[in-house]
Every structure is written in C-alpha cells, then in structure tokens.
Amino acid sequence: MSRSLPTRRGLQALALVLATSYATILLYQAVAQRQWIDEVNLAEVSRSVIVEAPASRRIISEESPPVTPPVATATMAPYTTNLDDVFISVKTTKHYHHSRLPVIIATWFQFAKNQTWFFTDREDPYFQNQTNGHMIDTKCSSSHNRRALCCKMSVEFDRFLASNRKWFCHFDDDNYVNVPRLLKLLDNYNPREDWYLGKPSIPSPLEIVRQGPEPQRRPQKVKFWFATGGAGFCISRALALKMTPVAGGGKFITVGDKIRLPDDVTMGYIIEYLLKKNLTVVEQFHSHLEPMKFLNKDTFHEQVSFSYSKGSRDEWNILKIDGFDLKDDPKR
C-alpha cells in the first residue's frame, strides 16, 4: 500500500506537465499566426503609401530605407546694422558753417538726416532749419585748441550715451561719409562687444610722458594708438559704457586736461591705455592728412569716408575723379 502511493503521485505530476506543455504550444501558434498576418497586412499597405513633399510626391516601397527627419542646427546670422542703430556726430565751428556745412547737407546728410547731428559753438537759426533741428550748440569755445576740441567731443559722447543707440560714429565737417558703406562695415561687428574702429595717421604708437601714481608721482612713458578724428571713427555701445566712469558727464575734458592732448588722442588714451582695449584699424577711413589723389577710383565705392583740404599755395587735396569741373565741384 505504501509502495503504490508514490507511483500514483508521479503519474499525476507527469500528466500536469504534459497538459501545460500542450497549452503553451497552442498559445504560441495562435500568437505567431496573428503576428504573421499583421506583418503581411503592414507590408501590403506599405507598398501604396504616398507621402506629400513640398514640390513633388514620393512613393515609399517596402524596400525603402527608414526615413529620418533632418537634425535641426542653429546658425548665427550676421549682425545687421540699421540706420537707427547709429549716432553720427559731426564736429564743426561757426567759422565753417557757410563754407563746409552746405556741401554735407546737399550730399551724404540726405542719407542719414535723422541720425546725424552737428556739434558747433554758436546758435545758428539758418542751419538749425536746414538740418531740421540737428544743430547742437555745445557752449564750447570756437577756437581750435585742444581744450575746445575736447569740450565738443565730451558733449558728443554724452549725447550718444543718452541716445541709447548702438554705435557712436564721429566725423569732422570736412568729411564725406559713404553712409551705406558705413552700415556695411558695422555689420561685421557686434555692438555688445568692445569695438574701437578707426585709422591712425602715425606709423607707430604715440608715446607720451605722464605723472605716475602716488606717492612718488614719477614721470612714466605711456604708449597707445589712437584713431584720427579727421578720418572718422566708431565706438560700440558696450565699450562706451565701460568708458562712462572715466569719460562720461564731462569727465572727458578732465582727462584731456591731464594729458594735455587733443580730443582724438584723448579718446585713444582712454580706450587703449586706461581700458586696455585695442584699436581695430579700418583702412577705409580717410582724413585730410592723406593725399586724396592717390586713392584708386575703382575702390571709391568701398571707402567709408573721404576728406579734403586746401594747401598753403591754394592747392586742393582732393579726390582725382571725373565728373563736374573744379568750378562747380571744388571739393570733389
């Protein structure tokens, strides 16, 4: 009796295993058949799927590789400078209102009427009307000494800061400014970075002697480059804001008095020496210190500024260019 009990239990266990195996086989066949049917149906559908493209239609067959969307990449667009991004200042004096301003007003001022301001030393209702209110009396001296020049530059700089524009571009009243080319030049530079753009008129950095720091105050040599004001120069707002503690609010005049040098040199001293920001040389700025006749007329359209001057023997330093004769267009 005790011997037959294990035998019966073994047979029951074997039967349970066989039943489980048979059920598993039936379930697998059902699932596999269903999956095979789905795959066949999907393959049949894929043969006739049509995908719309913007300019064509593509048929994707079952042999086509999987379609992967392109990876989106961000490309930084070059900075675009608009006229309203630029504050253009023109330094002049009452002595040159009638001899120099009409030429500017009749030519390049027409391209930037709302962006160009004339900084002078006398109220002038006639030219205030001609420029639509863009004459600014700086209350500075009308002389051409360094302090009078620094006084006007100080007013120019403060007016630019108050304008909230992105670029400060200074020119003299004997400059012709190629306004479209100026904007194209500024497209290459970000006004949120520190930029001092211009052209020196000397072959090496200017070297001056100034008093050293306390307590010894020993004289020390200082070297720096500066952009010639008579050719024009531009300063980004980012750099101008860094200059504000030193040059803003009339302090520019104080710095000029300290080193006893003119306005454009004082500007270079502040930027290159005090702030340690380098001048970026732009060859397309031109002053009356250059012989204009040697400029290649095939490159005139690429230049940012030109100038002119009259020599000691009544010889004009002007562009050599075809067009009107000297009687009609003496300053070219």
> Which CATH architecture is right?
Alpha-Beta Complex
Query: What is the N-to-C order of secondary-structure elements (H for helix, E for strand)?
Result: HEEEHEHEHEEHEEEEHHHEEEE
Largest sheet: 7 strands, mixed
Question: Span between N and C termini?
Answer: 134 Å
- Calculate the mean pLDDT score and round it: 82
Any key phrases for this structure?
332 residues; alpha/beta; Spore Coat Polysaccharide Biosynthesis Protein SpsA, Chain A; seven-stranded mixed beta sheet; two-stranded antiparallel ribbon; 8 helices; 35% helix; disordered N terminus
Describe this structure in words.
There is one protein chain. It is built from eight helices and 15 strands. It is of the alpha/beta class. It has a single domain, classed as Spore Coat Polysaccharide Biosynthesis Protein SpsA, Chain A (Alpha-Beta Complex). The chain has a seven-stranded mixed beta sheet. A two-stranded antiparallel sheet has the order 1-2. It is globular and about 65 Å long. The N and C termini lie far apart (134 Å).
Short description:
The chain has 332 residues and is an alpha/beta fold.
Summarize the SSE layout with pairings:
Elements: H1 4-46, E1 50-52, E2 57-59, E3 86-91, H2 97-106, E4 116-120, H3 125-130, E5 135-137, H4 146-163, E6 167-172, E7 175-177, H5 179-186, E8 196-198, E9 206-211, E10 219-224, E11 233-236, H6 237-247, H7 251-259, H8 263-274, E12 280-281, E13 305-307, E14 309-310, E15 316-317
Parallel strand pairs: 3-4, 3-6, 4-5, 8-12
Antiparallel strand pairs: 1-2, 6-11, 7-13, 8-11, 9-10, 14-15
Helix pairs in contact: 4-7, 7-8
Keywords: Glycosyltransferase, Membrane, Signal-anchor, Transferase, Transmembrane, Transmembrane helix
GO molecular function: glycosyltransferase activity
InterPro entries: Fringe-like_glycosylTrfase (IPR003378)
